Amino acid sequence: MTGISRDVAQQLRDAGLAWKPTAGDRFVVLSEAREEDDVFTVSDMVVEKHDHPTGTILGFNGTTEWALDSVRIEDALWLPREDQLRDLLGPAFRSLARSTMGWYQVLVEVPGRPEQVFDSENPADAYAEALLALVKAATA
What we know:
The protein is of the alpha+beta class. It has helices spanning 6-15, 82-89, 123-139, and strands at 26-29, 39-41, 47-52, 55-60, 70-72, 76-78, 93-98, 104-108, 116-120. The protein is built from three helices and nine strands; from the N terminus they run H-E-E-E-E-E-E-H-E-E-E-H. Helix 1 (6-15) packs parallel to helix 3 and helix 2 (82-89) runs parallel beside helix 3.
């Protein structure tokens, strides 16, 4: 399954999409000191989620690649997978199709609103654009 671009992930976060880390989730560390876009995966073996009264911390176990023991969830950007985005669309999701131009199109329907189509070269980004519209509508 493919993931979304960092830009779209940031737009979802800015719109209010909350992340509750689970095993298999992918993320990047947001830091001015780090220019690389290393993608990490939450895993009991490498990156564990630790819930504390003050917030969630992602702990790096035995990471020798770079000096990092943990990162606050606020300093990590979740990169949802295609299946996670589809699940987050919930009952609004109707279909994913390929256009005659080769783009992926996601059709969503929210009761009381006309159907909407979101398209992208990457199916995950098409799902993300649809989810972004739903999150923005819900918070407006």
